[in-house]
Structure formats: C-alpha cells, structure tokens
Amino acid sequence: MDATHFPLSIPLRLANLLHELLIASTLERRAGSEVVQVKVATQRCPLAKGLVSIAALVNSAEETPQPVSTHIKGTIPSWINGSFLRNGPGKFEFGKDKYSHWFDGMAMMHRFYVKDGDVTYNSSFLRSDSYTKNSEKDRIVVSEFGTIAMPDPCKNIFARFFSRFKLPQATDNASVNFVKYKGDYFVSTETNYMRRVDPDSLETKEKVDWTQYVAVNSATAHPHYGRDGATYNMGNSYGKSGFFYNIVRVPPQETEGDGAKEDVADLYGAKVICSIPASEPRRPSYFHSFVMSENYIVFIEQPIKLDMLKAMLYQVQGKSFNKIMTWDPKCDTIFHLVNRHTGECSAVRYRGEPMFTLHQINAYEEGGCLVMDMCCGDDGAVIGDFTLENLRRGGEELDKFYNSMCRNLPRRYVIPLTVDEDTPMDQNLVNLSLCTATAKKTGPGEVYLTYEELFNDELLQYGGLEFPQINYAENNGRPYRYVYACGFGHVFSDSLLKMDVRTKELKAWRHHGLFPSEPVFVPAPNATEEDDGVVMSVIINPKEDKSTFLLVLDAKTFTELGRAEVPVNIPYGTHGVFNDMNQTAVTVATTHRN
C-alpha cells in the first residue's frame, strides 16, 4: 500500500495503529518542547526595502519549438560549441485551475545553441503525462508538490467523495534538472519518473520508471558522475521493514561492437549499493541531493521531516504534499558516511546541530578527513514558502516576505575518517591547516561536528549564496578553489558570484532589476588552470517585455564577454547543464547535490 493513501474500509488493527502513532507523535512533540531549547537563526544579511516585483518571472510562457536567432552584443568566444540546456516551471494554469506553488508549474525546457560566436534559442514544454492529461481536460487532473487535483466536477457527489481514497498518481512533471545516464539525457524531478529527451530538438521521449530497474520509490534530480562513467543517485524506499535511504549506482554505457547505440532508455545494471535505515521511520527526512568524493558518499539526514501519518490522512483531507513537510529544530543533523566502492556504511554516527541543505558545493579527502562544502540554512521551513501567492506579492508585502526568509550561506564540515575505540574523547580530530571546523568524539561510535563559515562579511551584502557550481569535470571530489553561484539579495537570485574558498574573496556581477539563473562553468579547450573558461547564465528583466539574454562571463576575471539577446519571454528556471560538443566526454556541470 502506498504510504500516501489508505482505503475507506480500514481494518481495525490499522485504525488502532494509526491511533497509537498519533498519541506517540503527540507525546514526542510535548516532551520535546519541554526539554529541548529551539535555536533561532539570527538574521545576518541586510533587510530589504522597495524590492522590484518578480511576478513576471512566474508567469506562463509560450514555447519556441523552432530555433530563433539572437542579437549578439560584445563577443561570444568562438571556441564554445554546444548547448546550454535549462529546465524549470513554465506553465502555471490549465483553464480556470491554477497551481499554488512555484514547483508545480509544468516543465519547460530551454536550449541555447552556441557555435562560432552565434547563438540560437528554442524551447519546448515537456510532453509529460501530467501535461498531456491536464491539456486534454483543460484543468489540473494530476496533483503536484503544492497543488492537489480536485475531483472531476462531472462526477456525481458520491464518485467525487470516493475519489479521495484512490491511490494518488505520482507526477512525471520533470521540471527540476537535466541529468545523464549512460550517455542519454533525461529531465528529472523527485518522484520515481524521469523522461528521456533529445538535447537538440528537446523532443520528449519515453517515460522511465525507476521502480522497474531498482527497488526505490523516488530519486533525486542531482546525481553525481564518476570518472569511470558510472552515475550515482539516491532514492528512498519504504515497506514493512521500515523506511530507507538508498544509494544507487548506474553503470557506465557499454560500448557496442559497431559503435551504434540503441535509441531507448537504458538503466539496466542499476543497483542499490547501500540502504540506510531512517533514524525516525515514522518521520523520515526530506533530501534534495547528497555528497560524493572520490571514495565516499555522505547522506545528510536533516531535520526537514516528512510526517507519514499526515501523508496518509492528507489525501483524504484534500491537502497537498508540501503540507506534510515540517522543520524540526529539536533534531540533530546526521551525516551517514558510506564507502562508495564497497557500499559499507560507517558504524560511526556523525552529528551536528540542526541545519538544512539543498545543494552541496564539493567534497574531497585530505589528511585522513573528508572535507564537505555546502550551502546551509537554519530554517528548513523555507521550502514550503515558494507559493505563487508569495512570489507575486508587491510593495511592502514582498519586502516582508523576503525579510522573513532564511538565507543560505556556505559552510565547511570535516569528517575524520578513522575513528575507533582508541580515539580520544573531546579532542578536535580535525588537523587541517587554516580550518576552523571541528570534530570531537563524544561517546562510543559518536562524533559531533561543528562547521567553518566559508565566507567573510562581504557575502552578507549579497544575501547569501545558493545554486553553487564548480569546474565539475576536473574538480568534483578533489581539492578545488573556486565556486560560482547566485547571490540572493531578493527572493530570486539577483547577482552572480565567484568565490575563492581558500581566501573567501568574492567577485560579483550584479545589476539592479536583473535576475540571473544558476551559473554553469564551461572549461576552455586545453585549460591549464581551474578557472580557465566561461560562466553562462540566463538573465531576466521582469520590467521589460522580451528582454531576456544569455550572459557569458570570463570565469577568471568575472567580467562580461558578451550576451545573446532573446526575442521571447523566459520564466525563472531551476537548473541546467552544458552539453559540450568539444569534448568526447560531455561536460555535465550540474548542481550535484529545485
């Protein structure tokens, strides 16, 4: 039985179990509120006043199926040869039905094809089952993250009532990211479904169900890529034995004898290499991504909890998925360390104070430790705040909404890899030079981590840092120096940043009223330094119609080289990749960890 629904005729023993769970959950909350001091995050970034309206960034757009020319200003380096692919919500209503949350909008794929200094643009809605069914009925018939589909008004009252108890259909509205498995591109969300797509035409191909290949109920939209061609991801599973977080490995593409590859999705050979039991089976943690170095994977069990009791009840009550997510700062953050090659999970439990993270920056091994850099916040309730009502606010109401939001900042955690019974208690086990993160053994098999702030006060003026990117092909899982990201001096990103993680120095691109997308780094041919290349971002101006442009920055100096102005309106998106035709091993510059 799916955890999000149960039939009307509940067996008595299940009813009793639900009653016991409700009582236990209530007692846990009461006890927790009495003995646990809840930490309140301090607002460190400047308060905003007079923010520009961003309502135009979350309006429905028209697709551009045939490539159109762009107007070039400045110079687009002629060595760039490939497609900048972007994904994100692009349609927010069907007929009179409107979506409630930004995440709910129908997936819209964008392609900027760059060659010989010229750029063309095309876009297409993903022809998912969700999009097709909604279009046919001219109303919302498939539930999304923050919007539940209403019963068919054409049915009689009894049919509408009993439809509440039907198994909810998982969406294949894959609006989060472009990902790669065995050489094929897919668009992905956080359910068990992906869609294979053509990266040139943006044609929607077959729907792929993870459950047909491996025992998981979902998968993230932020896989990691090994240098051997394998792809790693995480998904959850649940059943009689409990709730598990699973690490999945998809093997590299096999070389065909004649060099040809069959034009079908291929996840064969995928397997779960490690299953991590949830510390609270009734309240597992939400996760968006994970950490990977050359030899380890770390799953971060954070205090954003999914209330499984609510999940069962909310379908009957007609409430959406985002309502079952709660931020519980009484819970520690748990870092589960797994050997990437053997799948063995460390018996040591690494803990830290409550925090939430959506996107990791990088991780690498040094001096017997695993260094992990990530964007972190102190209030995980922010995920549910991105309703279209909030995003379409104006004036003082928009200022108030933004000023209430948690700001994410980069942090460094360090895990000591060798901890045993002889490891001394209450001594800092981190001996890396110039690193202020700590790790102390607090008991048998227990280590408590504190973080280093990976920034100086200058970053606070940009509202924090999110959507991090690195030179992924060369530096993922290895020591690195530079991260490219967005600053958030507004609800949506309003600056592009380059930070030196050694010195914490910043370079920035910021223009009032312009909203850049997540940056993607593209290495130059024959690059000799980590930041030899360009950074690309799609820039949107909500005050001017059809004023979007593709920005190309010199990655080293972070100054503008050129831009390609697009004669269409493009909504604010989520993530993207660069399909580099200059390389035989395609550069996949993903947010590897919405």
3D architecture notes:
The model is unreliable at about 1-40, about 155-165 and about 585-594 (pLDDT under 50). The protein is mainly beta. It is about 10% helix and about 35% strand. The protein starts with 11 loop residues before the first helix and ends in a 14-residue tail after the last strand.
What is the structure about, briefly put?
The chain contains 7 helices and 38 strands. Mean pLDDT is 87; it is low at 1-42, 156-166 and 584-594. One of its GO terms (molecular function) is carotenoid dioxygenase activity.
Features:
594 residues, mainly beta, six-stranded antiparallel beta sheet, 7 helices, 38 strands, disordered N terminus
What's the layout of helices and strands?
Elements (H helix, E strand, L loop, with lengths): L11 H24 L32 E2 L1 E4 L7 E5 L2 E3 L1 E2 L2 E2 L7 E10 L2 E8 L3 H9 L19 H6 L14 E5 L2 E5 L4 E5 L6 E6 L14 E2 L5 E9 L2 E9 L20 E7 L13 E2 L3 E6 L2 E3 L1 H10 L7 E3 L5 E7 L9 E4 L3 E11 L2 E9 L10 H4 L3 H10 L4 E8 L21 E6 L2 E5 L1 E2 L11 E5 L2 H4 L6 E6 L7 E6 L5 E4 L5 E2 L3 E4 L9 E8 L8 E6 L5 E6 L10 E5 L14
Parallel strand pairs: 22-27
Antiparallel strand pairs: 1-8, 2-37, 3-7, 3-38, 4-7, 5-6, 7-8, 9-10, 10-11, 11-12, 13-14, 14-15, 15-16, 17-18, 18-21, 19-20, 21-22, 23-24, 24-25, 25-28, 26-27, 29-30, 30-31, 31-32, 33-35, 34-35, 35-36, 36-37
Family: Belongs to the carotenoid oxygenase family.
Keywords: Iron, Metal-binding
GO molecular function: beta-carotene 15,15'-dioxygenase activity; carotenoid dioxygenase activity; metal ion binding
